[in-house]
Every structure is written in structure tokens, then in C-alpha cells.
Design brief:
Shape: elongated
Largest sheet: 5 strands, antiparallel
Structural class: alpha+beta
Order of helices and strands: HEEEHHHEEHHHEEEHEHEEEEHE
Distance between the termini: 26 Å
Strand content: 15-25%
Helix content: 40-55%
Number of domains: 2
Strand order of the largest sheet: 12-13-11-10-14
Length: 339
């Protein structure tokens, strides 16, 4: 449930965690913040300290509360139109736990599928010997079992938010994640839409409002690859990012895409850049680029890039120097078409 707020309440209990986030934020400011020609640092709005904000403004804040049976997250942030937006997201804890439980895959589930395949192959071999099948017939039976195993594995991973790529490599299925989460993030879109209607925003202003939220309203934090025995792909699904108040580059990109997907005219792509030790993820929005905007062409159309990671406060069309280097690296990049 979302609404506009005019007061700020920050929990003292968050002080230690937010101080850690400030250290993470300063590192990412250094890595992806852009320096305009005038020399002013275009950096994050929030210093994540108690009472901190953009130029001392108390309207810029994050408040994360666990009320036992209810999770409550409140945010205040400034967009690139210099308007302050406030939003609140509430979700029953039981629903939030069920949402989190549905994402990520367990190695033991994969091992069970592998055991099924191995047992089926052994049974096929014994049956071939018993019935006098030739080698070609046995090979065909084994190939059918392997094909069924691959389908079962793909179906399982898809149900957990992943996809199976060439070489049996698992990767987050970003388009699927965005489609599933768009309805859940509609309340946030409604808040942005009310402000957009009031101030007569154009489409790029709406994109900028959502971008400001994920860049500066949420802390940057890298998830663990494995959490309580479950493989996460070092990814936090969109609703979890909102409830917990943090995410990394791909988590924030999925969140931004999920929010913006509630506008029918929005067309977006995700861009994954491999790297060592970790890759990077940004998002592109179908728009006519202004002079100086960074964009990529996909299927003959131009997508203006956004840098959701934060905490650098970078408008649509601006990305960090490190992102530019990765885009131009020999490894290239992969594109996920969200809609």
C-alpha cells in the first residue's frame, strides 16, 4: 500500500548498517560517478547517516521497519526535475516470505533430477539387454532420457527465476523476473504517475523518477551467491530490494524495469557485461537520444542507457566511466529483451 508522506522518521537502530552502506556508497561513487565539464561531482543524494540527505534536505531518506507480521519500507528521494517524491510500501511478512521462498534454486533439487536421469539410463540399458535391443536402439532410448532430463531441468530452473544457457550455465532469467514483478511494483508506479500527472512529465521525466529511486533511495549492496543453501545468482528479486532497501546493479535494473513496465509504451532491454571478478548490468529504454546520450542499437532501434546501480545520481543517457569501458571491452555484452 503506497501513499505520499511529508514527515521523516529514521530509526536509530539502522545507524550501524547505514554507516556500512555509506562506505559502500563512497566506493561506488568513485567507480561510476561522472564528472561533468564544469568539474562538479554528480554524486548520490543520500549519505545514509541519521538525519542525512541531499544538501541537508530531510526529505531524502530511507526507513526500513520489520513489524513482525508486516514489513514496511518508506523512501524519500529527489528526481532529476528537482521534485521530492515520498512513497511507502507495505507487505504482510507471510507474503514476503513466500515471495522470497519462490526464488533461487537448491543443489539437492538438481541432484535429484540427475539421479532420476542416471536411474532411467540404467533401466533403459537393462531393458535393452533383456529384450535384445541393438546399440542404435539403446542410443535412441538414452538420448530420449537425456532430452527429458534437460526439459525437466529447464522447467525447474525457470520456476525458480533462472534459465539454462549453452554449456549448462545457469543465469538469472531477467525478462521473466521483470514480467512477474511488474504487477507487484504497480503501487510504486502509481505514486510516480501521480507526480508525473501533476507536473506534466514527459516519458524521460518518468524514467528519471524511477531511476532516481533505485539509484539513491536504495543502498548498493552485493548479495551472496549462495544464501542458506540456495543459489541466488548474486541477485535480489525486485520486491525484496524494495522491502530490504538495497540491491546490486542487476537487482536494481530488474526493479527499475518492473516499475516502468507499468507504462504500456515503455520498451526496455537489459545489458549484461561480463567481467572479472564480476560483471555489470545496466538498462536501456527505447527513446530518441539527445545529444551526448549514451545508447545502444538493438534490432534497428536506439535504447538510451541508464545506470541503476547508484549511489551516483546519473540521469538517463549517462553511465559511469567503468560502464563505458565494459561496453567497449572485447568480451562484448549480452542483451535481455524485457518487453
Amino acid at each position: 500500500m503506497l501513499g505520499l508522506r511529508t514527515t521523516v522518521v529514521l530509526l536509530a537502530a539502522l545507524a550501524a548498517a547505514l554507516a556500512t552502506a555509506a562506505r559502500l556508497g563512497s566506493e561506488w561513487n568513485r567507480r561510476i560517478a561522472q564528472y561533468p565539464a564544469g568539474g562538479d561531482l554528480l554524486a548520490g543524494q543520500i549519505d545514509f547517516s541519521i538525519g542525512g540527505g541531499f544538501d541537508g534536505a530531510a526529505d531524502v531518506y530511507q526507513k526500513i521497519v520489520d513489524l513482525g507480521s508486516l514489513r514496511l519500507s518508506e523512501y524519500g528521494f529527489k528526481n532529476f526535475n528537482q521534485d521530492i517524491l515520498h512513497l511507502t510500501y507495505k507487505i504482510p511478512t507471510e507474503q514476503f516470505q513466500a515471495y522470497n521462498a519462490a526464488y533461487g534454486y537448491f543443489p539437492e533439487d538438481v541432484r535429484k533430477l540427475q539421479q532420476w536421469r542416471d536411474d532411467a539410463r540404467q533401466s533403459a540399458y537393462r531393458l535393452a539387454v533383456k529384450t535384445g535391443k541393438n546399440q542404435a536402439q539403446l542410443n535412441a532410448a538414452l538420448a530420449a532420457i537425456d532430452g527429458l532430463y534437460q526439459r525437466k531441468l529447464r522447467d525447474y530452473l525457470e520456476s525458480r527465476g533462472f534459465r539454462l544457457e549453452a554449456g549448462n550455465v545457469t543465469r538469472i532469467d531477467m525478462p521473466q523476473v521483470v514480467r512477474r514483478n511488474a504487477p507487484l511494483l504497480k503501487p510504486i508506479a502509481l505514486v510516480i504517475d501521480r507526480v508525473a500527472t501533476q507536473h506534466r512529465y514527459q516519458s524521460m521525466d518518468i524514467i528519471g523518477a524511477g531511476l532516481s529511486f533505485v539509484q539513491t533511495g536504495l543502498r548498493y549492496q552485493q548479495p551472496e551467491d549462495v544464501w542458506k543453501g540456495k543459489h541466488t545468482g548474486a541477485f535480489v528479486p525486485p520486491l525484496t530490494s524494495v522491502v530490504l532497501g538495497w540491491g546490486n546493479c542487476d537487482s536494481k535494473s530488474a526493479l527499475l524495469a518492473s516499475i516502468l513496465s507499468n507504462w504500456a509504451q515503455m520498451r526496455m532491454i537489459g545489458i549484461f557485461m561480463p567481467g572479472n571478478p564480476v560483471g555489470h548490468y545496466v538498462m536501456g529504454v527505447l527513446q530518441i537520444p539527445d545529444e551526448g546520450d549514451v545508447y545502444v542499437e538493438y534490432q534497428g532501434l536506439k535504447y538510451v542507457l541508464t545506470e541503476p546501480a547508484g549511489p551516483a545520481w546519473l540521469p538517463p543517457g549517462r553511465v559511469g566511466d567503468e560502464t563505458l569501458a565494459k561496453l567497449n571491452a572485447p568480451e562484448g555484452y549480452k542483451i535481455d529483451q524485457f518487453f
